[in-house]
Amino acid sequence: MVKLGLKPLKRDKRQYSSYKGxxxxxxxxxxxxxxxxxxxxxxxxxxxxxxxxxxxxIYLSPILDGYNGEVISYNTSKSSNLEQIxxxxxxxxxxKNLEGLILHSDQGWQYxxxxxx
Length: 117
Prior knowledge:
The chain is α+β, with helices and mostly antiparallel strands. The protein has a domain at 43-108. Helix content is 13%, strand content 25%. It contains two helices and five strands; from the N terminus they run E-E-E-E-H-E-H. Strands 1, 2, 3, 4 and 5 form a five-stranded mixed β-sheet that branches. The relative contact order is 0.23.
C-alpha cells in the first residue's frame, strides 16, 4: 500500500449512546442482576442498538422475554426516536394481559418520556 501511495480510510468509531441526561422519570431497578425468568411474560428487556449497514445507520429496538430469549416485538428505524419506541411497545402489548410483567430498560431518554411511562 505504501508503494502505491494508498492510505487506509479512517472511520469515526463513535458508538451510539442514547444518554441525554435525565429528561423524565427514572424508576428503581426491580431485577438487579437477576435477568433470568422462571416463566414466560414475567421479565422483558429492551434497548436500542445501532447498526452500520453499508454506511447507513439503522436502529433496532426489540423486546426480549427473559424466560427463553423470544423476540416479543421489534422496530427498525433510520433514526432513534420516540416513534420507534412507541411502535415497538404498541406491538408488544397488543391484546395481551400481562399482569405482574416487569419491562426492563437502560432508562435512556426514550424510556424516561411521558408516553413510555
